[in-house]
Amino acid sequence: MRIENSFIPVRGVGEATERKLWRAGVTHWDEFDPSVVGPTTADRIESFIAEAAPHLDDGDARFFDREFPSAERWRLYENFRDDACFFDIETTGLDHHRDRVTTVSFHRADETTTLVQGDDLTAGAIREQVADASLLVTFNGKRFDAPFLEESFDLTLDQPHLDLLYTCKKLGLSGGLKAIEREVGIDRDRPDLSGRDAVRLWREYERGDESALETLVSYNRDDTVNLERLADTVSSALHREVFESACADQA
Asked: Which N-terminal residues, if any, form the signal peptide (predicted)?
């Protein structure tokens, strides 16, 4: 589903009104028919489209991040997926005041980069990875990954952020990343590894086991690459459930 299929950012337009528009054949901004809604709502929709269209042409994800209700920001994904940065961190524990980040993987445009503590994991390197990303994509990253990086490296990650934990919940998918991957049919090379193993592997690496670092990096990269597959899967499912189902009811 694309931004230009959406009318829900408009003040006074909720799910019911948006579905009414879609069922009437108004499935794109270019197709807006003022007669489908009342005059006040029609004026608001026309004003919003006039304001939003240039922002969309300019690739301004921040505008739509502000305008869309938080539960509907998954709709930004299709428009901005090519400029999205998927990322995932591994740490020595869960306390971002006390524990350390060990590895961070970033996946963009089919390329994956992993930064390692004590080697190339620096504030500057993180900034370089996310600098021109229109959209950040994580799983539970709003509560964990992003605050951990910000605290540990004195960063501000202020790009629009799609947290797939909440997107998955809209489809009734709950639990951790790996459980949801299994449920939607996403495979990984080492399904036996967990976050606890990531902590153990780092400790083993600190004691001199280089192979432990290789396994940790592989695990971290799998988490990150699979974020793109999960985002594709859940956004497509929501497109069918939210948009296509309403369009199918057209009079």
From this structure: none
